[in-house]
């Protein structure tokens, strides 16, 4: 039993390492297999991995089901876009500002929504993020429905960090992903992380032992929002475009799906989930123009029968999440 | 401010409120009694509109199309409940949210395959076209008055059914304590199926009656679903009375905000600043209202008796 569990744990680790390795060498692998578009796809998948990782902190570890996580990605992307629109192109100004803006938005939304729980929490996070979506749609100066084109990627002023170079930018994203994984690993295993996980399993008991759970949840919410902001900065730079669609609730739904697909509450799961999600979407879109007619039921089947996600299957434990 | 215009916008607000109520009533029943978060409720609204469009085309009569579509919506709702949703009752909210999100993608694509990506317009019969003169010199479109009237009739009917009939008694029993109602011999699975059928019909009906004004289109369910969420959160989940009052409140604030907020802002701000900020702020108004209400009453304005917060 114990031996079996250990072996399965390693299988999950092997897959994680494999996914990371593929991400690391993609700029060389993709031309080698003759499909250079894979570089762009993996860049996107890694950005969404960061977003999914941040969501996993509050949802997988903290049990807070936020259906509005696209909001923080969107505001950060818009911050980059708007600053660039007004002629501020330096990464050293754009990036910190965007992170601060998404942290502030996460603080405000968290302060309101964390007063509630359960289904109210789901609906309120959804409604608040949708509020920003409508705000973006009515912001005429910044392109309203048509979105805002960003003239050039953030300027770092360093010759070895030219984001307009495809491979350099790819490795910036990869480094950001590693950084987020490291930060989350530290958070989850810290005292703070213990408290967050404790709140998920029994909030009343955590309060009973004298912990102000609201503050811990809010802190986790802000950390997650800020990290998702980083994904937004990268997204804006990758696409050189930001539109209200970035904030749409369907994006939040996709993020939740990536987390669940990879395995809730497993550190690396969301990355696997995001990569598999983009590969799957790509393959289905090749198959038929109406790929969502397959994807929708697939999503339902994953929910019904693969509760622990990919990570759960690799660990071969019964459904216990 | 022009008072005739104000009265017209107030009526428009009530009309939007009625549509929101039809949607929110089903949503709040399904959540309050079955404990199911159904994101696909907006898809049923969309489906209703497309049914109405097709049958109007086939029968040349919008009224007849609605009469045919409502029972069809009940059947679709029941089928959906049996095939996809029944297994979700015992799952947690995250599973329900994700699975019904999957249903949205499915329905959206289904509509695209059957009806195409372009929206469908529904012509109104001549007797619903034109406008009537109301007191105080207000001219108001007949059809919008029809929507308000239909909304009031459904609200009244729903009230009578829930308060005065046996099925209503079972619904209320199910809402306050599902296990106890089951233990007393109520066929809970059947009750759930019936409630879901009613909810689907209400949502579909809302989509049908709004479609002549807005066209039947694929995105129509999304916006209104979120507004309906705002309504039931404000009204208190599980309460039909709360849904009714909150729907009217939300409908009026949204409509009046869109029409008059820039005028109102112009009292304090330079005109061009007010005109720029007006549309942006008015689209956020109902969410600000929701946040404010939640701040003081996290359980909503009228939480049903005996419900857990």
| Ends apart, CA distance between termini of chain A | 20 Å
Domain count of chain A: the total is 1
Shape of chain B: globular
Count the DSSP helices of chain B.
11
Mean pLDDT of chain B: 87
How would you portray this structure in words?
The complex is a heterodimer of chains A (321) and B (309). Chain A has helices at 2-32, 37-61, 70-85, 91-113, 118-138, 166-188, 191-201, 203-208, 213-239, 249-262, 269-287, 292-305, 309-315, and strands at residues 148-149, 241-242. With 321 residues, chain A is an all-alpha fold. Chain A has a single domain, classed as Orthogonal Bundle (ABC transporter involved in vitamin B12 uptake, BtuC), CATH 1.10.3470. In chain A, helix 2 crosses helix 11 (269-287), helix 3 (70-85) packs antiparallel against helix 4 and helix 10 (249-262) packs parallel to helix 13 (309-315). Chain B has a domain at 3-218. Chain B is 76% helix and 3% strand. Chain B contains eleven helices and two strands, in the order H-H-H-H-E-E-H-H-H-H-H-H-H. Chain B has helices at residues 3-34, 41-59, 62-85, 93-115, 142-164, 166-176, 178-183, 188-214, 220-235, 240-266, 271-296, and strands at residues 131-134, 138-141. In chain B, strands 1-2 form a two-stranded antiparallel sheet. In chain B, a hairpin with a 3-residue loop joins strand 1 and strand 2 (138-141). Chains A and B meet through helix 5, helix 10 and helix 12 of A and helix 4, helix 9 and helix 11 of B.
How are the SSEs placed, and which strands pair?
The complex is a heterodimer of chains A (321) and B (309).
Chain A lengths: L1 H31 L4 H25 L8 H16 L5 H23 L4 H21 L9 E2 L16 H23 L2 H11 L1 H6 L4 H27 L1 E2 L6 H14 L6 H19 L4 H14 L3 H7 L6
Helix pairs in contact in A: 1-2, 2-6, 2-9, 2-10, 2-11, 3-4, 3-5, 3-9, 4-5, 4-9, 6-9, 7-9, 10-11, 10-13
Chain B lengths: L2 H32 L6 H19 L2 H24 L7 H23 L15 E4 L3 E4 H23 L1 H11 L1 H6 L4 H27 L5 H16 L4 H27 L4 H26 L13
Antiparallel strand pairs in B: 1-2
Helix pairs in contact in B: 1-5, 1-6, 1-8, 1-9, 1-10, 2-3, 2-4, 2-8, 2-9, 3-8, 5-6, 9-10, 9-11, 10-11
């Amino acid at each position: 039993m114990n031996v079996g569990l250990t072996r399965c744990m390693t299988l999950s680790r092997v897959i994680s390492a494999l996914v990371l390795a593929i991400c690391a060498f993609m700029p060389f692998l993709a031309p080698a297999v003759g499909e250079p578009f894979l570089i762009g796809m993996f860049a996107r998948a890694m950005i969404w991995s960061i977003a999914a990782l941040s969501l996993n902190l509050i949802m997988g570890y903290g049990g807070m089901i936020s259906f509005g996580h696209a909001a923080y990605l969107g505001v950060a992307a818009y911050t980059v876009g708007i600053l660039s629109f007004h002629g501020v192109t330096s990464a050293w100004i754009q990036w910190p500002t965007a992170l601060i803006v998404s942290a502030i938005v996460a603080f405000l939304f968290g302060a309101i929504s964390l007063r509630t729980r359960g289904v109210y929490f789901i609906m309120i996070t959804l409604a608040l993020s949708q509020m920003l979506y409508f705000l973006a749609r009515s912001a005429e100066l910044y392109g309203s429905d048509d979105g805002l084109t960003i003239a050039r990627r953030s300027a770092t002023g360093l010759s070895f960090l030219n984001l307009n170079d495809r491979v350099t930018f790819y490795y910036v994203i990869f480094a950001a992903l590693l950084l987020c994984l490291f930060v989350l690993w530290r958070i989850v295993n810290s005292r703070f992380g213990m408290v967050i996980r404790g709140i998920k399993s029994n909030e009343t008991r955590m309060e009973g032992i004298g912990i102000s759970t609201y503050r811990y949840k809010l802190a986790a919410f802000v950390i997650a929002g800020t990290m998702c902001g980083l994904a937004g900065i990268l997204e804006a730079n990758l696409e050189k475009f930001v539109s209200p669609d970035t904030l749409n609730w369907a994006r939040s739904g996709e993020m939740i799906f990536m987390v669940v697909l990879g395995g809730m509450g497993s550190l690396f799961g969301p990355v696997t989930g995001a990569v598999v999600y983009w590969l799957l979407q790509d393959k289905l879109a090749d198959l038929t123009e109406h790929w969502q007619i397959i994807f929708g039921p697939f999503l339902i089947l994953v929910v019904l029968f693969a509760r622990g996600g990919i990570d759960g299957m690799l660990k071969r434990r019964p459904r216990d999440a | 401010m022009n008072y005739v215009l104000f009265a017209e916008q107030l009526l428009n607000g009530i009309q939007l409120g009625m549509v929101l109520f039809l949607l929110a009533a089903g949503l709040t029943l399904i959540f309050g009694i079955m404990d199911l978060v159904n994101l696909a409720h907006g898809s049923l609204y969309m489906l209703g509109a497309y049914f109405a469009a097709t049958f109007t085309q086939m029968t040349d009569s919008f009224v007849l199309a609605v009469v045919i579509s409502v029972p069809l919506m009940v059947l679709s709702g029941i089928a959906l409940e049996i095939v996809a949703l029944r297994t979700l009752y015992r799952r947690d909210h995250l599973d329900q949210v994700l699975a019904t999100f999957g249903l949205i993608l499915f329905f959206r694509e289904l509509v695209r395959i059957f009806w195409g990506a372009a929206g469908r317009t529904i012509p109104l019969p001549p007797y619903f076209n034109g406008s009537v003169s109301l007191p105080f010199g207000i001219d108001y479109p007949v059809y919008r008055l029809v929507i308000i009237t239909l909304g009031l009739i459904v609200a009244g009917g729903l009230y009578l059914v829930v308060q005065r009939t046996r099925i209503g008694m079972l619904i209320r029993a199910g809402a306050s304590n599902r296990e106890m109602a089951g233990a007393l011999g109520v066929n809970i699975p059947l009750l759930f199926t019936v409630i879901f059928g009613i909810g689907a019909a209400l949502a579909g009906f809302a989509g049908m009656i709004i479609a002549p004004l807005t066209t039947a289109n694929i995105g129509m369910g999304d916006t209104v679903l979120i507004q309906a969420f705002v309504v039931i959160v404000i009204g208190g989940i599980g309460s039909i009375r709360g849904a009714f009052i909150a729907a009217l409140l939300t409908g009026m604030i949204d409509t009046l905000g869109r029409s008059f907020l820039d005028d109102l802002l112009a009292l304090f701000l330079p005109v061009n600043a007010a005109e720029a900020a007006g549309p942006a702020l008015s689209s956020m108004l109902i969410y600000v209202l929701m946040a404010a209400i939640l701040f003081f009453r996290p359980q909503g304005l009228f939480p049903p008796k005996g419900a857990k917060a």
